[in-house]
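ugh ok so i messed up the first submission bc i forgot one of the chains. this is the corrected input, ALL of the components this time, i swear. 307 residues overall. if the numbers dont match what u have on ur side tell me asap before i send this to the collaborators (the ones from the other lab, u know who)
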Amino acid sequence: MSSAKSPALMPADLHDALQHALIEVSENAYFVFVEPANAAQFATAVEQVKTTWLKVSVTFAGAFAGAVEITLPERLGNWLVTSLLGMDTEQTLPEPQMFDGVGEFANMVCGAWLSKLSDLAMFELRVPAVTRMAPEWNPLVETRAGHELACRMVSLNDLPMRVLIRSN
Amino acid sequence: MNQSNPPAAAMKPLNILIVDDSATMRALLHRVVGLADLPIGTIYQAPNGLEALKILETCSVQAVFTDLNMPVMNGMQLLREMAKRDSWKDLLRIIISTDGSKLRRDEARELNVNLYVEKPFRPEVVRDVLCQIASADAC
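and heres the new structure output, hopefully the right one now
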């Protein structure tokens, strides 16, 4: 499969593209408003979360390779999927259904971000991987390693979400 | 909807095939198709291109909505297989994918794809293409 190299982008472009991708997916598909959060707001929101956390990763390859990693409370994951499907948002979904749904959210964010970087380059996206983190885990205690291209912390439905883009 | 379209009662029910490895996306499309206020016959679902071909071999389908990135057999592979069969030449082919690259769209055009919808999509986009299919089928 051929692919064209996209022009080198400034870090601001990568962050802006990620923000726009998040807004596009959240508002067009999930009809939920995205509010940006700074580090302090994010930390406050994280400390108020009482459910376990999910980490969703979509790896991609093409003009360059990397991964989109989304961290969100399980309660937000459940809400996103029930909302998308027009179900009662108080309903607790079976794990396979919720994992598939949040995986699709991450898949769309990854695809939308890559499309905004360049409409010439082609990428292959892998099947999303969803992990339920240990009960005591939250994004504030994580030691972040690896090369991060972009990071966005936001609030959806008054719950925190973090999106990281890592490169290989 | 166009005022010149035939009334819904005059339209033949449409059989739709939805191909996506995500059960969530298949459920969403199933819901969107159902909300289109059109005569819908059977909505078939397949998690990959290979399963989609099995359905096409045995069932009457008027429109195929397919994702691109899928395991076992991806969307482009499915469309290439469909292009080989003369009996499927009138099937409407709609791609629904996160991949909006120009190269992919060009590839789709060569495979006679009727519409390329980029995820995330608004439900009315799917509704509008179904209206077009239903109107053409009634003529």
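quick check: Chain A has a mean pLDDT of 88. that seems consistent at least. Chain A is about 35% helix and 30% strand.
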